[in-house]
Fold these 2 entries.
Entry 1:
Amino acid sequence: MRGHRNHPLWFAFLLHRLSGLGLALFLPAHFWMLSMVLTNPEGFDGFARWTDHPLVKFAEFGLVFLLAVHLFGGLRLLALEFLPWPARHKTLAAASIAGAFLVSGAFFLNAV
Amino acid sequence: MSEQQEYLDVSVWRGDASSGDYQSFRVPEYASQTILDVVSWIQQNADPTLTYRFACRVGMCGSCAMMVNGSPRWTCRTHVKKVAGKDRKLKIAPLRNLPVIKDLAADMAPFFDKWVKAGGRHAPSATRNDPIPQIKPESAGRDAANAGIECINCSVCYAACDTVTGNPDYLGPAALQRAWTIVNDEKHGNRDAVIEIVSAAGGCHNCHSMGSCTLHCPNDLDPMSAIAGLKRLTARNFFKRGA
């Protein structure tokens, strides 16, 4: 990694772009598969069986990761550019959101 | 007790706009030595044809910036101790994102052209016969204008920015920060024209908020936040116009 890029904000930028690219590649395939419910039910069932494969189940974690990273990356960017707050306040706000998300996520997983 | 002389392993970029390569030098290490001291030692003791640029040596003039171990830095205020690892290796190159004139001297013309384009020249709002407008030092606008006023035009932020690398028409962090200063300067007579320029292609909305400008600014200025200010202002104007 080149010296001038070696800092958290640049990595956040890279992660946001890469997760966006990943989702852009995934979504057309996702919609095409969903459309098969109407156009080709047998084909869809075949796909549904394929998603039971452990490797595919594992890849779904990656998908959730991409979604989470991209969602929070976008919120980060909006806060960075459209909230003229001091950096310290933004850090506190981000930390409290992360904390709240952790707690509510734990409850949600418990409920599931 | 005599201390043994230590040496730095320095590779320096030599060449011009068309081609070039790194050349190695062995430079004696001293206490409190700066990168500019290293370059000067090479020019004075090893190879007098080495070309580089400096003037004040105290971080005021903004002329000595170079790439040091991959990062843009003001070389007169960068201590060797801070950037050379335990292996005492230094890699010194001309600033990124600018044409090379020769060796370590980059052509700053594109950088200054963009500075002027984004409103580098002051446009007066009154004549000498008018009363001087009173501006409260503690007003929010003056605070925002003051934030970027200590820019020394060293082009470190411009060299650090990957958006500049990808888009040669992008005005860059320094020029946009200058525009933000002007937009907040009540005494400037043509603020609308500056807003118009920074909202157009190559303006503030090209910024990807990578933050390298703010991280590397040797004067601890915050061009990324200044550009964010321009983004907020131009977005607000857009929605006002649409309503």
Entry 2:
Amino acid sequence: MTHRRLFAAAGLSAALSAGAAAAVEEITVAYFLEWPTPNQYAQAQGLYDEALGVRVNWRAFETGVQMSAAMASGAVQILYSQGVPPFVIASSAGLPIELVGVAVTYDDNDNCVVHASQGVTAANATDLEGKRVAVPLGTAAHYGFLKQMEHFGVDVSTLSVVDMPPADGAAALARGDLAMACGWGGGLRRMKEHGNVLLTGAEKRELGIRIFDVVSVDSNFAAANPELIAGFLRVTEDMNRRFESEREAMLPVISQASGMDLDATDETLNGFGFPDMETQLSDAWMGGGLQAFLKEVADFFAEHGNVESPLDSYDGVVNATFMQKAAEM
Amino acid sequence: MTVLAIYVGLILVAWAITRFALAPLTSVDDFTRRKTVTFGDESAVRASRAASVFSVLAIFLIWGAFTGSRLTPLHAPEAWRMAPIWLPPPEAVWGRVVTIASDGYRNFTLFEHLIASIWRVVGGFLAGALLGIPLGFAMGLNGFLRGWFDPIVEFMRPVPPLALIPLVIIWFGIDEKAKIILLFLASLWIMAIAARAGVAGVKLSKVHAAYSLGASRWQVLRYVILPNALPDIFTGARVAMGVCWGTVVAAELVAAERGAGMMIMVASRFMSTDIVIMGVILIGIIGYGIDMLMRIAERKLAPWKGRG
């Protein structure tokens, strides 16, 4: 059995790398379903294809780690809305991956919820010790969870941490199987029906727990096709700004493209922030703050034994040139 | 493609060695050897031990050569090698086995992870067999019970156990109980159908012979039907074990604290490919080991298989 699997994997990767060598006639963008963003309007209307002059394929993924794996095999070139931890994991492992922009910030849309029966709030958070907690490992929620526990002085090794995606975590929390569950989006909304959060989004921001997704690209592909990456960022920026004025018109299309109903789309988008290019190029983000934050996340995961060898600096994996170029377009 | 070509090349080399260099040393002078025509005669085909050894060596050779391993004498050119995040060299995987065996992974040692998985498989399988075999016998021996259970068994049989995972979480939670129930459901139908097929396969002449010698119903069941159904039940048990072993890995993807499947899944989230490969190899070895044990048990408990 093992030999077949190994062999299939080797054959597959050979076939995929052969495919990647072809001329650029189309690009593939990885994205998440049930994660509505204004640029899905452009995705649905074919505005990217028009602006870039190539066919733009969209492929939905389950996790950010799967996105980077697909990118490394040459199947996708742009990852839209990859979480920070998967990006840090991929770049620390030495994948040719580069961060070229911030997709969405969502401090209020990613949190941990304690089951109502536990009676645990920020005041007595250490009562969680010894209890069972569901966390989607290797995600922004995992980072937020570890940071919150550190803040409250809860010893994570006493918790029994199980790996569950937010939707499953919400179901198990509702059953009362868990003391706490962490997640985002629709799963988080359902969790909140059965319990309370320990910290609000604003309180987490004060502690330096920033939650955002990034736009990352295959660095070899980006170096060879800078205008495609810059064009992609340009269209994305246009959609984000257009959404501010034409929200009502764009919502139904976004709702359709993201696979969520209208109300849920509207509500989710309320918790999202889309920083403009100027902000992204400022010191708080790609001007240096972002790189420092990546280093902090990497060191934090390394400390918890999840990342083997963090890079000395994450300056080299953040590339603002595409966004500078896009800003001039 | 290159890899495939090399692999085919290695097969040819190994074949040449076994055929021309080793054959004179290992040939046995027996009845089979005296047969003039052997092609198409399955009983004359014997697995070549040497070929099995070469097969395993070939995999490690290719694995090592394409990952720049220290253990292999030959190496693929630099451009062809795979980075450790995609395929780590064998010694890195072995190094992982050693560290996880001693330091553990996510608070549990390797041994505890594997025992957790084996315990679930054995528990779920035994529960399935304990209920499934009597169920199959009942369906094979009684018209009402066959009619009653037939729609249930035939409906549940083609449902993949993995499709039941979401329901099992909602109904039974995420405890150990839920995982064992899933494996129980995976093995139950297989065992029931195997037992029923076993009953159906008993030669009527044997049953009649027993009755004519004055056997009671119980004696017919105990001394005629059960022994004759046993080979079929064993076949079903081996299939069920295989399915359980495949299902446990998936069952552990959801909310497990320990287990081989959980180890693979969590490692993949952090791109620790060495742990993933280690898990895959260990699962393969244990699955193979379980099947060997079942075969031994079959030989001991039902030596009359295929001779009735």
